[in-house]
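During the no-cost extension, the postdoctoral fellow (Dr. R.K.) reprocessed legacy sequence entries with the updated structure-token encoder. One reprocessed record is reproduced below for audit purposes.
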Amino acid sequence: MGHVGTDTARSRMWRNGNLEAENFSLDKAGEFLTDPDCVVWVDLVRPGAGELDEIAEQFSLDAHAVEDALSRNERPKAVRYPRHVFLTVNPIHYDVDEVELRVGRVSAFGTDQALITVRLDDVLDMDAVVQRWDDNSGLIKYGPHALFHGLLDEVVDRYYDTLEDIDEAVESVEDLLFDDQRQSEHEVSRRTFRLRRALVDARHAVLPMREVVGTITRRAIAAEHSEELGPYWDDLNDHVLRVVEWTDSLRDAITSIFDTNMSLADTRMNVIMKKLTSWAAIIAVPTAITGYFGQNVPYPGFGKGWGFWLSLVSMVLVAIALYGTFRRKDWL
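Re-encoded structure tokens follow.
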């Protein structure tokens, strides 16, 4: 692999915390690594197996970690290998209009002087991660652990944004619970189901982050500059715990909406049955009396052809009027 492709890869080099080079070749990266004051970052998007194998050879990456980085079926995790740390996480993005959650995949290899990120999609905005590094450029001098922190901090912050969007969607569904509109019950059920599915996918991404951040934190605390970076990792751990707790509260809220909607549907059905029973009883009494005595009294048009059509049209009009009334009251 010669030069890093601008559409599939990016790279940066910091020396003593100062950015000195970008988008350089991997051969150049190898030269930078001979200087202990240099920190290198390489980002690959949808790399092929051969491309990643070449990087693995360049940075002495474990073959099992390389295989995991290319697999979409691996759960979020963090593993310490003899020569590097490997982690894989699932960034998420919630589409408010479609009520759909997108789940991405990002893996990272951290050595003593380098961070290599591998993305299988574009769910995570890497520009935002780079901007976070630039905003906290004073931390870069502490090495790849600072880069790890910026990456995970951005992922967790996007969890916050996603859960906030889901929370607002849950509140909008709650407003529909006691809406008297005819289709509100079906709309609540549909939206509640889609929200539940989105939250389940979000929890699958969020819950393992406690283990991931915990593993990287222990590694960072055991490393050099742990005193300087310790407060940042503690803050990140706190954010992860709050996100996990938020998913639990949202799950309870969605379950409550579902149960309440079912209870309201049962209540509405009972009210409709009482009303229909009352109307049936009112109509049944005179029908029973006239039927018992076999009444057949003359009416307008009795014994004439137009009288038959008048009675038929009257029955149809009454039936249509009753149907319309029941539809407006959501009895049908």
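Strands lie at 9-15, 18-22, 38-45, 77-80, 85-89, 92-95, 100-103, 106-110, 114-119. The CA atoms of residues 163 and 247 lie 7 Å apart. The remaining legacy entries will be reprocessed before the final report is submitted.
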